[in-house]
Amino acid sequence: MALPTPKKANVGFAIALSLLVLSLLSSFYSIYLSERDYRLVVQTYEIIHNLEELNFYWKDCEASRRGYVLTQSKDYLDDLSTALSKVPEKLSVLEKITLDNLAQQKRVKEIKILISENDFYSRNLTKIRDEQGYEAAVEKITQGQGSKLSETFYRLILETKNEEMSLLEIRSTQSKRSSRVTKFAISISILFSFIITAIAAKVSSHEIKEHVGVETKLSDTITELKRLDREHILAMAALQKAKEDAEAAARAKAEFLANMSHEIRTPMNAIIGMTGLLLDTPINSEQRDFVETIRNSSDTLLTIINDILDFSKIESGKLHLEKHPFDLRSCIEESLDLLATKASEKGIDLAYIIDDNTPHTLLSDITRLRQILVNLLSNAVKFTHKGEVLVSVSATEVNGKNHKLHFSVKDTGIGIAQDQIGKLFRSFSQVDPSTTRHYGGTGLGLAISKRLCEMLGGHMWVESEIGQGSTFHFTMVTETAPSQKQIFLHSTQPILSGKQLLLVDDNTTNLQILLKQTKAWGMEPVTTTSAENALELLRNGKKFDAAIIDMQMPDLDGIELATEIKKIENLPIILLTSIGKRVELAARNVELAAYLTKPIKPSQLFDVIMTTFGSVQAKAAPKLQLNHSMSEQHPLRILLAEDNVVNQKVALQILRHMGYRADVAANGLEVLAALQRQPYDIVLMDVQMPEMDGIEATKEICSLWPKEKRPRIIAMTAGAMQGDREKCIEAGMDDYISKPVKVEELQMVLERSTSLRPEPTQINSGGLEVLDRNVMDGLRQLQDQSYPNLINDLIDNFLKDATEKVEAIIIAFRDRQSEDIVKLAHSLKGSSATLGGRQFSALCAEIEKRMLRNCPLQDLEPLFEKLEAEFDKLCQVLKVEKI
Fold first, then answer.
1. Among 206, 389, 513, 802, which is least packed, fewest CB within 10 Å?
2. pLDDT tens for each residue of 445-465
3. Integer-rounded Cα radius of gyration of the chain
4. Residue 397, phi then psi, degrees to nearest 5
5. Helix, strand, or coil here: 678?
6. CA angle, 26 as apex, 22 and 29 as ends, to 5°?
7. CA gap 822, 817 in Å, rounded
8. Is 754 within 8 Å of 634 (Cβ atoms)?
9. DSSP sequence for 636-660
10. Is the whole-model pTM more than 0.70?
11. Which own/partner pairs from 395-403 qualify as long-range (CB within 8 Å, at least 24 positions apart)?
12. CB of 493 closer than 8 Å to CB of 618
């Protein structure tokens, strides 16, 4: 049966292709043989060349050796050394290129041994010539050892060369044969190619004609596909344009919200500022109530506007994170403090637990982390009517460098239905519209927190059940910074070890925190959630060294329980109270060892327990107590310039506890507008703000108001790099504090300020004590049996170091060395303040400040005249303090 034309063509192509493949394979094999033979020939020539060079260097060695024996000229030794240095290289090459020939490898090894013996013989002969003389060397030569070595060497070289020449002839013949075979194979391949082409052309001509019609149809199909592809491209372009338009609209919306928020906030700041002025005027109680309502409503509205502004910044991509080291525990405690008053009013317990493996110091944006915590805590307190709110933190290491922190905020509030959780993190929405009417809020807090969390490298989720409360979780990835563990976090404390402690609190979470911390210090606590159980333990003879009891308990409150305990045993009792309860408790006339305000802070717990047991040597770092009457002692009108909402809340809360009612501006433009409306004594100026930063605003203030009429400007910045303080002072600022704002620093900087204080022409330290006794008493408390000479050593070291630096600063002033004056004044300021030398430290601080402001040196002459006198006074007082 005859095959159809297409199949005949396929069979013909298959046969022809097979023949072509065979021809090509034979050609490739022939080429491979030719290349191999060529390499072998090249290798043979290389071996012969190296043997001849080795022979040349051997002869050079013999000639140099004889020349030295005859003349003892050092030039021959140099030639000998040169020849010998070339031999190892040639031997190494011969060893490599004769690896495929065992006989040649054997001869190379024999040559290597001969060369080694010849080297030894040459060195020995040279030594004999140097030590025994010419005749001894000639006698050594006549023994014939050198001649024997040479004869053996020449024989081996000749044998190797002869064998390589024979191999060269064989390999050359093979190479010629391979070349002929290659030419034949290539000719056959070309012939078969022509035959296959002719067969393919004849067989395929018919099929080509048949497929012309098919190709025509295929061409039409391709044309149609191209048309459809063009339409698809146009559709995609339209879709991309629609996407870009949508993104542009979203950005425009965000920018509009940001601009509108700013425009609304400007008159709101004016309302708040003017109500502040009105509250300072004599008005009756009804009017004061009206004004307070206006101010509180304005503050609430300003908070809502700030939320919208934050959300707009995130949406438009204009929110940027900072990276500074901060203490995690302080961040959490500050966040809890902001909600402590509201929680106390509702009778809710606030607490936090940090896992032991969590790093203490983080390198991230404390402001944004605190904003997330405050938002979650605010919601937890808002939707919780009884019970507790607990913050928990744990950490896991990531890549050996970063840590992933897991935060959770757990409450015992109303809870959220599972089908409503999806609405939580949407902007401008709440789970149930009725909650907005009942609890208030914009519905932006959680949306902002979630986006901030994602910017910090984490994510946020929630677990909740109706009536059982909610737990909000979020994570963040952060670097850590080195830090020294504080004393109140250390393990066993010798003074507290073994002390029996009674813990009474109906809240099990607080009990767990107290139990964990006191056990870590080596104490032996006993816990109970019932006042009756506590009394039963005491009645049964259980002995305790102290007791910590909660004020709010269902059966007996803390005061009643303390009264009953005192009837059984006179124990030192520490009472856990909420903010604002201490005045009320003091009126009940109960003898207590100490109060401890909730939420419980380990540092405060440590201080209270150590004080209770009568120890001051191992106390944690002393903290300046908040001066609640500061506004009466230092009446100041304060303007807070800060664009971040959380930083505003922290600073305002601290100022409020000092008795101050501050106004707020969110950027430099608002600061200028506020100063034009009314005068202020102090401007707490953030450095980095939008639209106009703190540096530019300060320069504007200095140009618009004379020195005696402008407010005192205090820089607030997270920048902690060297030179930041100088930049602020150079811009015209009067003082400097770093963020996060600490109570101690803010209180001290306000104490240094007075209403509209002009720049003094000379330092006035007459009102200061030569030595601050409180500082010296604090140092004496640190002196114990482990360091009984602490005071003497500190004073001796200071007197020695400061004497040298005072002499150096006087010389620097005489020689007009400005940089040295600044460094020495700064050092003396700090060291003298450490020992309580207030007058001398203030004088050094004034010199440093004047120098940083580029004050002419001749204007500082009165200060330097006073410097030595003040130093002498301080030295005399310190010498008296020595024990």
1. 206
2. 788 889 889 999 999 999 988
3. 47
4. -80, 140
5. coil
6. 140
7. 9
8. yes
9. --EEEE---HHHHHHHHHHHHHTT-
10. no
11. 395/355, 395/357, 395/358, 395/359, 398/477, 401/479, 402/477, 402/478, 402/479, 402/480, 403/358, 403/359, 403/362, 403/477, 403/478, 403/479, 403/480
12. yes
Task: Reply yes or no: is the peptide bond before residue 740 cis, omega within 30 of 0.
Answer: yes
User: What does the alpha-carbon distance between residue 440 and residue 49 come to, in Å, rounded to a whole number?
Assistant: 99
Neighbours of 746 (CB within 10 A): 20
| Residue 230 buriedness (CB in 10 A; 0-12 / 13-18 / 19+) | exposed
* Burial class of residue 643 in the structure, from the number of CB atoms within 10 Å of its CB (0-12 exposed, 13-18 middle, 19+ buried): buried
Who wins on pLDDT, 429 or 862? 862
Q: How many Å apart are CA 683 and CA 661, to the nearest integer?
A: 13
**Residue among 658, 837, 616, 863 nearest 749 (CA):** 658
CA geometry: angle at 587 spanning 584 and 593, to 5°?
90
Handedness of CA 10, 16, 18, 20 (dihedral sign): negative
Q: Which residue has the higher pLDDT, 473 or 336?
A: 473
How is residue 544 written in tokens? Answer: 């305790």
Q: Which DSSP string corresponds to 273-287?
A: HHHHHHHTS---HHH
Q: Which two tokens stand for residue 569?
A: 């045993």
Q: Is 433 exposed, middle or buried (0-12, 13-18, 19+ CB in 10 A)?
A: exposed
> How far is the C-alpha of 872 from the C-alpha of 837, rounded, in Å?
11
Q: Token pair for residue 185?
A: 């194979």
Q: How far apart (Å, rounded) are the C-alpha atoms in residues 814 and 819?
A: 13
CB 754 within 8 A of CB 682: no
Alpha carbon 104 to its chain centroid, in Å, reads 66
Q: Of 36-45, 143-152, 355-364, which gets the smallest average pLDDT?
A: 36-45
Q: At what angle do helices 668-677 and 145-279 cross, to 10 degrees?
A: 30
And the tokens for 66? 């004889």
Cα 50 to chain centroid, rounded: 63
List the beta bridge partners of residue 715: 685, 736
- Distances 217 to 6, 161, 227, 571 between C-alpha atoms, Å: 20, 75, 16, 105
Bridge partners, residue 472, by sequence: 409, 462
Q: Pick from 37, 163, 166: which is nearest to 108 by CA?
A: 163
Cα angle: 217, vertex 221, 227; to 5 degrees: 145
| 3-state SS, residue 621 | coil
Return the DSSP state at 403.
E
Helix (H, G, I), strand (E, B) or coil at 664: strand
> What is the full DSSP assignment across 112-159?
HHHHHHHHHHHHHHHHHHHHT-HHHHHHHHHT-HHHHHHHHHHHHHHH
Cis bond leading into 690, ω under 30°? no
CA dihedral (167, 173, 179, 184) positive or negative: negative
Q: Which residues contact 315 (CB under 8 A, 6 or more apart)?
A: 250, 251, 253, 254, 257
Q: Is the sign of the CA dihedral 796, 800, 803, 805 positive or negative?
A: negative
Up-side HSE of residue 746: CA atoms within 13 Å toward CB?
Answer: 28
Lowest mean pLDDT segment, chosen from 203-212, 649-658, 721-730: 203-212
What's the rounded mean pLDDT across residues 234-238?
Answer: 81
| Amino acid found at 187 | S
User: Which pLDDT score is estimated for 202?
Assistant: 67
